[in-house]
Amino acid sequence: MAAEKPSFETFQLFSTTSAFGIFDDPSSQQPPSIPPPPTLEVHASQVPSSINHNVESVNIDDGLTLLKGRVNTQQVFGLSNSDLVPGKYEGGLKLWEGSLDLIRALLSDIKSDFISFGGKRVLEVGCGHGLPGIFALLEGASAVHFQDFNAEVLRCLTIPNLNANLPGKSHPSSSSSSNSTICDKAEVRFFAGDWSDVDKLLPHVGYDFILMAETVYSINSLQNLYNLIKKCLKHPDGVVYMAAKKYYFGVGGGSRRFLSLVEKDGMMSSSLVAEITDGSSNVREVWKLCVK
Ligand SMILES: C[S@@+](CC[C@H](N)C(=O)[O-])C[C@H]1O[C@@H](n2cnc3c(N)ncnc32)[C@H](O)[C@@H]1O
């Protein structure tokens, strides 16, 4: 299907006026009272036939174009025009700017021979569309595991995006005893759940790369996210790539807030990979974290 208009949305959500009222006053932030959705593995065969995926292309860089679907919160959650409903839906149906910043930074580090995904195990945390994880697969990763808060996002968007970008290569595993999907020779799996307990499902093998874009906006979840990373990263040579805005106005999180937590803990070191000041939002950054 032909591309429609440029395919990603700049956030209103984290601009100077927050779109979700309950976080407008950072001092009054409370953990969401709604219980999180269940933690579960989603299978590649579980794409609902009722969802129209509407594929369009996203230009990442000269020579690199990926495909993404467009589904809305009304279709998937029955919510009209919601960027985010704390504790219920965490924004995974939108393509956020940071995920493209992240892919560009990865591409640059590959071109500079700093990293390679060949044969590596990758976890994309808070994946939404999953384009960074799909990029890692296209670059030869041996396993990519996608995690999102909402199983619906994985079923209606991440899995169809994977199928669109790797046509004919991805298909559900034929083994009924296996949870994995096979994408050529790579292992691809999908996990839904809150960062506080999704590690119970993730294989404890240690990921060579953990990728995440626009995941550090909410102060309430930063510690759980960091704990998850510490549990899942391969020691000592695993690497985390994090794309995020420096500050998320109105919600209090941001790359710097997350990094202060990392620094305080003392286990990992961080280095700035890219700073993006294109005027489309406040300053965005890509950081690399390694075990000291
Ligand atoms: C703003 S979206 C970013 C989506 C995607 N990475 C992108 O850049 O387009 C934030 C993502 O973080 C995940 N997320 C946020 N809070 C979470 C939590 N407490 N537990 C698990 N996942 C969470 C959601 O899955 C959501 O897709």
Automatic annotation (TrEMBL):
One GO cellular component term, please give it.
cytoplasm
Gene Ontology MF term list = protein-L-histidine N-tele-methyltransferase activity
Transferase listed as a keyword:
yes
| Gene Ontology biological-process annotations | methylation
Primary enzyme class: transferase
PANTHER family assigned to the protein according to its UniProt record, in alphabetical order = HEPATOCELLULAR CARCINOMA-ASSOCIATED ANTIGEN, HISTIDINE PROTEIN METHYLTRANSFERASE 1 HOMOLOG
Instruction: Name the chain's protein.
Output: protein-histidine N-methyltransferase
